[in-house]
Amino acid sequence: MLWVGATFCTHTMNPRMSEVKRKIGPTMNSAHTSAFFLLGLGSGSRICFYSHTVSRYITYTQLLSRVQTIAAGLLELGLNKGEMVNIFSQTSANWQIVSLACASLSNPVATAYDNLGEEGLEKSLNEPDCVGLFTNSHSIQKVCRVLARTPTIRYVIYDGKPLLPSSSSPLPLNVRLIHLDELFDLGKQSTLDAHDRRPSPSDLACIMYTSGSTGEPKGVMMTHANIVASIGSISTILSHHITPSDTCLSYLPLAHVLEYIVEMALLFVGVTLGYGQVKTLTDANVRNCKGDIAEFRPSILIGVPVVWETIRKGIIAKVNASSFFSRAAFWSAVEIRTREIPLLSWIVDRVVLENIHAATGGRLRAGISGGAALSVETQKFLDCVLMPMLQGKFPSFRAYIMFNAFMQDME
């Protein structure tokens, strides 16, 4: 079980809300409260810190401890209530940990895609007057080149390989560079009390900047109430089918609202999260080891249309490279699954399509697509061959009906 300081809104229609109220107790009122936000009701839940080179699991309780310690470290640095922290980092568990630590202290975060150019990064730092920045060690050089034009920055926190004094560009005199592990050690020694730093529902939680692919990055402001309402909506729609026994591989940018909100909703349910990268997602992208999907074996996968289209083309390319008999068997299996012939569908799933399922870990049972509309061709293909697909672009009631129908078929 994980409790993280943030806003909790009781206006959602989550069927588990009575359990949440019982656990939170008298601190809740009839509307909403800035008491603790519950992430993961299942006490046996795990979060996976995963990459294609190492796997390490921690419990939700351990995650809570790390979030609280990082928050204490931020207090020791001198981060004042309401001051903005920019997250310019690739998707990782540390991204979420820093974000949650800031949320618990009423410090909003500004998100920036880790592939932003210097101009885009400069805007995402200057426009909201950021005083802190979290990034990765391989991005420090770019950050240093921008800092001369970002006068409000006082702290740069980074993870990854610790830097030698001579390995980074000179920092402005008023900027402190600190590794995340050092911040953690600082927090362990802290005696400061963060109780009065809890946010209220109307407090700003996040400014999410666009990728800048169609022009100058634009920031969207979201309060704690906005985020919790979104989490409650997703949980209401999906909680009947997603349980703490599920696993989800996170690889899309957490700077994108789709990945950010869905991941938070999965944390609420208590799902195990694994963190991979687009470059190491499939077996075709790596050497001498399995890709992230095959290694982690998720049961839920979140993606955007370009990812699903890549998966579809990859499957078809592999089929076309096989023997005539294998190609005929595959397309016959697709036809059978399309027509939903009961007994034959069960057989082709376990005989003809088994290798395709194995290539994605063999456990996928649901896919979530968002960001843009998924083509009908790709949707039908993946429904037949791999797993039921839910598109986030549909109105909630329509998505709910479609997803229920898919999952009933699977069960």
Short note summarizing the structure:
By secondary structure, the chain is of the alpha/beta class. It has helices at residues 17-24, 60-77, 93-104, 118-126, 140-147, 180-188, 224-238, 257-269, 292-296, 305-320, 324-339, 342-350, 354-359, 376-385, 396-410; strands at 2-5, 8-9, 32-33, 36-39, 46-50, 55-59, 84-88, 109-112, 130-136, 155-159, 176-179, 204-209, 219-223, 247-250, 272-275, 300-303, 366-369, 389-391. It is elongated and about 70 Å long.
Structural features, described:
The protein is α/β, with parallel strands linked by helices and 411 residues long. It folds into 2 domains: 61-222, Rossmann fold (3-Layer(aba) Sandwich), CATH 3.40.50; 230-410, Rossmann fold, CATH 3.40.50. Helices cover 41% and strands 19% of the residues. The chain has 15 helices and 18 strands. The chain has helices spanning 17-24, 60-77, 93-104, 118-126, 140-147, 180-188, 224-238, 257-269, 292-296, 305-320, 324-339, 342-350, 354-359, 376-385, 396-410; strands spanning 2-5, 8-9, 32-33, 36-39, 46-50, 55-59, 84-88, 109-112, 130-136, 155-159, 176-179, 204-209, 219-223, 247-250, 272-275, 300-303, 366-369, 389-391. The strands form 5 sheets. A 7-stranded mixed beta sheet has the order 11-10-9-7-8-12-13, with helices on both faces. Strands 15-14-16-17-18 form a 5-stranded parallel beta sheet. A two-stranded antiparallel ribbon has the order 1-4. Helix 2 crosses helix 6 (180-188) and helix 11 packs across helix 14 (376-385). The chain is elongated and about 70 Å long.
